[in-house]
Amino acid sequence: MRQGARRRETKYFYLFISPWLIGAAIFTLYPILYSLYISFTEYNITSPPKWIGLQNYTKMLQDDLFWRGVKTTVLFTIFSVPLQLLLSLFLALLVNQKIPFKRFFRTAIYFPSMISGVAMSLVWLWVFNSKIGMFNWALGLLGIDGPKWLEDSNWALASMVIMTMWSAGAGMVIFLAGLQGVPPILYEAAKIDGVTRWQSLWRITLPMISPVVLFQLIMGIIDSFQVFTQAFVMTKGGPHYATQFYVYYLWQNGFKFFKMGYASAMAWLLLIVIMLMTFLIMRVSRKLVHYEGGGGV
Asked: In the chain, what are the domains?
């Protein structure tokens, strides 16, 4: 009886999850495997794929726009990820204190991160407007002639980095969860020993939330490697390729120039780079990240 009941339960289990499995196979697994195949072909949608082996991958090494996209994306990552981590941590430390209207401030800081990337890009497009934008208006009050943020190749990438700060609220929530998981007894013992708040931050808080910092770092790097919406909505990769990010150039090849094989090769290379970066960070962080159980990554 028990075996029969278990068989029926197993049958119903697979029956109920089969729509999801079929959908995942058709709309996720098949496109992934097909993109791997066409990355080794010359394919422009209008004609059947033509097998060319590794030519798409070797072509990247000779493509100046490819390397420009890599450089722009790396620079964006170097500046945006640390700034966003620091701002998120600062905000989390701030709203974790006993201050009036704490819940209101938490909600207000988190709210911008809920807005879609397209909508927020349109808002920042106005903020960075050199004639009627809020930034240059504020600088004008101080007697400073503001730059042409998105129209000047020297300022366009910096504008994108500044814009990423609007999503610091999402990181703040994650850091806040980590901060609230730190045992209060540690701070009480440190206070008795005469440890200052600054010393507590470095000796207690940061070591205890180091797994959260690691998570935020990895997710920040992954997100920055895939930045696309801002460039698509605000600058179209300009001016003078200043915001020609890797994924934006990938999109251009696939959906503007219809070089689907080349675009797929770029996508798979990006996946490999992200996986390697994640693996290296996890390996390096073994001695730097503290886990309560004493285990490593």
From this structure: 1-38 (no CATH), 54-287 (1.10.3720.10)
